[in-house]
Amino acid sequence: MNVILIGYRATGKTSVGRRLAALLGFPFHDTDEAISKKTGSTVRQLVAMGGWDLFRREERAVVAAFAEKDGCVLSLGGGAAVDQENTKRLRERGFLVWLKADAETIARRLKGDEKSAEQRPPLADQDSRIEVSRMLREREEVYRKAAHVSVETKGKTIEEVTGEIVRYLEKGNPSRPPLKLRGGENVQ
Fold it and tell me: Do 5 and 18 contact (CB within 8 A), yes or no?
């Protein structure tokens, strides 16, 4: 089983994903990083070369490859869950966790993250808070339908968010085998 983190940009998917992978003893993968490694281009460069359609095609191929894996933590790009085929593939072997934050929190995090601006283009030519608010409204239902659970990240540390996810995994599910934390304790 895989643990897949979905949600908008700057909700903590990569940071939480790395910590969660370390706790579970799973490899960690980030789809945006995998796309950049595969193509030799950043998301921003890919979009500049061929538009969002080119990027989404590359993203779909990367997601399909990761969907075949078992026992990893995967951080999806913010728009990957919008593609229903991506979501369908990932749910077959995965537990999807929606990391959430409000538009003001996300805009503040994006403003403080130089790497994000360097690597990822804006989705619209608007003030970041307006863009984030609009995109959250558009994607909220998609994220809600795709995810097994949601976790709020506003005002929480990486450890607190990771702990909530682990507690969800510990609750168990008859359709999901138990996971083991690094060090041997079971995560049901």
Answer: no
Phi then psi for residue 113, to 5 deg, are -115, 90
Domain boundaries, the chain: 2-181
Q: Tens place of pLDDT for every residue, the chain, 188 residues?
A: 899 999 998 999 999 999 999 999 999 999 999 999 999 999 889 999 999 999 999 999 999 999 999 999 999 999 999 999 999 999 998 999 999 999 999 988 888 766 655 555 555 555 678 888 998 999 999 999 999 999 999 999 999 999 999 999 988 655 555 555 555 444 43
| Of residues 56, 96, 98, 99, the one with CA closest to residue 80 | 56
**Distances from the Cα of 11 to the Cα of 33, 88, 165, 173, 176, angstroms:** 16, 22, 14, 26, 26
CATH code of domain 2-181: 3.40.50.300
Model pTM score:
0.86
CA–CA separation, 61 and 174 (whole Å): 30
